[in-house]
TrEMBL record:
Protein name, entry field: WYL domain-containing protein
UniProt xrefs under PROSITE patterns: WYL (PS52050)
Boundaries of every DNA-binding transcriptional repressor CapW winged helix-turn-helix domain copy: 9-91
Organism, scientific name: Photobacterium lutimaris
All copies of domain WYL, residue ranges: 124-190
Domain DNA-binding transcriptional repressor CapW C-terminal dimerisation: 212-280
Annotated transmembrane regions: none
Pfam families on file: BrxR_CTD, WHD_BrxR, WYL
């Protein structure tokens, strides 16, 4: 690239250009106009600048399509070329159209299924973010799933964790004298900031223990079925290695719909298993 850093607003528009052209096969100025609320002249300028300064030769104009399409030599410059980047744009666009019903962003033929939004208030989240930023302790009122009783806890949070199903904060708990995961939707009342934290991220052994989860097709599948599953997950040599840490390994498995408590489930249902289960076991049951 000839110029870096690129302004954030321009970078987002260049990414939109690249993602839409790659995954839809047709890019027009309307994509930028509807997504960013800019004029047609600015949209044309953005596309021309992308082609001149960012990725010369990446797009060609097709008169039949009345828009740009990827060239045979297309090479992603401001994206990775992964489908998730296109799905992220669809998700962001749906978020906007839910809030602004009159907004037309051009993705009306896509339907997305989302988990229910957990009940998290900004009054709860803000003090936790501040405590992490300023390395402070927080006094919280928390209701755990174990007994449902509301208890007071003083914690030293170090990381917010977002999984597909919930948000939690990783923190040192002075009552348990260990690191715990606190689900944000179970925090009652507004957290109260205290003094400097007692234990930070550097002392969280599980957080600082790198692990790799090895996924592979369920061996009970036929060879043909296993090949289909391996292709679905982008496995090489029949396995997929996912880097994580000991504190997050359970959440990664949940993301892949792997139930560690049901090891004899229908192979067509779960489809994949953990190849290095014994290595991960100490971090799964405690």
């Amino acid at each position: 690239m000839s110029k870096w850093p690129i302004r954030w607003d321009l970078l987002f528009r260049y990414r939109m250009i690249e993602v839409i052209a790659l995954w839809e096969g047709r890019l027009t100025t309307n994509h930028l106009i509807k997504s960013f609320g800019i004029g047609r002249q600015q949209a044309s300028k953005d596309i021309n600048t992308y082609l001149a300064d960012i990725a010369p030769g990446n797009l060609v104009y097709d008169k039949q399509l009345k828009g740009y399409k990827p060239s045979d030599s297309f090479s992603p410059q401001v994206t990775k070329g992964h489908a998730d980047e296109y799905l992220h744009i669809l998700s962001r666009s749906e978020d906007m159209t839910i809030t602004f019903k009159e907004l037309d962003m051009g993705f009306e033929s896509v339907s997305m299924i989302r988990p229910i939004t957990r009940n998290i208030s900004p009054q709860v989240l803000r003090p936790l973010v501040q405590a992490i930023r300023e390395k402070k302790r927080v006094d919280i009122s928390y209701r755990s799933l174990k007994d449902g009783i509301e208890v007071e806890r003083i914690i030293s949070p170090h990381t917010l964790v977002c999984t597909p199903l919930r948000w939690h904060v990783r923190a040192y708990c002075e009552h348990a004298k260990d690191y715990r995961d606190f689900v944000l939707s179970r925090i009652r009342s507004i957290p109260c900031l205290e003094g400097k934290n007692v234990m930070g991220k550097a002392n969280d052994d599980q957080w600082n223990t790198p692990l790799a989860i090895e996924l592979m097709p369920d061996p009970r599948l036929t060879k043909t079925q296993a090949a289909v599953v391996a292709h679905d997950y982008g496995m090489e040599g029949g396995s997929l290695s996912i880097p994580t840490n000991a504190a997050l390994v359970r959440y990664v498995l949940d993301t892949y719909n792997i139930d560690i408590n049901v090891l004899d489930s229908n192979p067509k249902g779960q489809q994949i298993i953990v190849g290095n289960f014994e290595e991960l076991k100490p971090y799964l049951f405690f």
